[in-house]
Amino acid sequence: MVENDALTFGELLERHERELFAYAIRLSGQRADAEDLYQDTFLAAFRAWPPPRRGNERAWLYKIATNRAIDRERRANRVVANVEDLALAAPQRDDVTLLDLAGAIEHLPAGQRAAFVLRKVQGLGYIEIAVALDCSEEAARARVSEALKKVKAAVA
Length: 156
Hints:
Blueprint: H1 9-28, H2 31-48, H3 57-76, H4 98-106, H5 110-121, H6 126-133, H7 137-155
């Protein structure tokens, strides 16, 4: 199933479990929901193993997690955001609170919210965001840019 030089599923899990769990918390906003999202992500990854492209496993996992989070949000019809983790993405203004920022992010469309969190909180590059969101690099840049404009306008 896996060649000698390929990453095993166990190695993939070991390398990315903490990072993916942190991302799940940021997307879902609640630990219990994050645990479910995290488990769904790795179960889906296990079922789809091996990844479509070698060397891009991290982005592949983000793509699965993002899609699972969007699906869960659609089903639950609720907004996802984690106020404590948003400090990393907060505009540099003294009068903007984390609650203001969280409220602005909660109103973003799901794709823009995911792009925003991947870029501004998780620190992924646009190529990784494009893979995670199954779009072009240009579209990933556009989603982040549009999300930033909307967040800035909302907290202005």
